[in-house]
Amino acid sequence: MAPTRLVVLISGSGSNLQAIIDSCKNGEINAHIAAVISNKADAYGLERAKKAGIPTAVLSHKDFATREAYDEQLLHVIDSFEPNLVVLAGFMRILTGNLVQKYVGKMLNIHPSLLPKYQGLNTHQRAIDANDAFHGVSVHFVTEELDGGPVILQAKVAVLENDTAETLAARVHEQEHIIYPLVVKWFSEQRLSMEADYAVLDKKQLPAHGAHYP
After folding, report:
1. Phi then psi for 58, rounded to 5 degrees?
2. Which helix (H) or strand (E) holds 181?
3. Residue-wise pLDDT tens digits, 117-172
4. Which phi-psi region, left, alpha or beta, contains residue 105 (left: φ > 0; alpha: ψ -120 to 50)?
5. How far apart (Å, rounded) are the C-alpha atoms in residues 115 and 117?
6. For 95, which DSSP code?
7. Largest CB tally within 10 Å, which of 51, 133, 145, 177?
8. Alpha carbons 34 and 83: distance in angstroms, whole number
9. Which residues does the annotation mark as catalytic?
């Protein structure tokens, strides 16, 4: 089976990108990262890509008058690398419908909450403020609904009595770096797909909350 061609989109440090780079390098994932694209030229994830010999591209949203104009150009850049799968790894942009529809079923995102809880930002503090016993992370297919696509895999993290948003985030990140490469692996092995409004793994419909790790 030919390696899956990945394009990874980032805006920041790229720790999930690094986890995927490492998993490709050690043979856990049968995939090749064709490019890393960022909307921020100073994103440290670009350095991670360069160290791994992966082509990079920067497309600043500040150079475009509208979200639609930006996404139209972003689509051209993504397409130029001919990916089988687009991986959003801390890409802090809300995507327009045209871009999402082009890659529907072939675009993944990771979100730091147990979706459908806490879509959007500040998820760790929101979980603490709600006195939740558990918080966590979800990998999902991307649809036009923000953080609303079919969930594939979740990992739970206990919320401790003395947690701050920072301490909770650190433990969530540990789980992110495990489950995101795992989902990319499933996709690269052609075990994972998206139907109308749910994910399918090994020809079985996953529940609304996805599978659970471990």
Report:
1. -120, 130
2. helix 165-188
3. 999 999 999 999 999 999 999 999 999 999 999 999 999 999 999 999 999 999 99
4. left
5. 4
6. P
7. 177
8. 7
9. 111
Count structural domains, the chain: 1
**For the segment 69-109, what is each residue's pLDDT rounded down to a tens digit?**
999 999 999 999 999 999 999 999 999 999 999 999 999 99
Q: What is the average pLDDT value for the chain, to the nearest integer?
A: 97
Write out the H or E segment, with its range, that includes residue 42.
Answer: none
Distance CA 122, CA 30 (A): 34
Which of 111, 116, 124 has the alpha carbon at shortest distance from 176? 111
Rounded Cα distance between 83 and 88, Å, is: 13
Q: What is the extent of the structural domain holding 84?
A: 4-213
3 state SS of 184: helix
- 66: domain CATH number is 3.40.50.170
> d(Cα 61, Cα 86) in Å, to the nearest integer?
19
Nearest to 137 by CA among 129, 147, 145, 146: 147
First-to-last C-alpha distance (Å) of the chain: 27
Structure tokens at 81: 């690398």
Q: How many CA atoms lie within 13 A of 18 on its CB side?
A: 13
Strand partners, 139: 110, 153
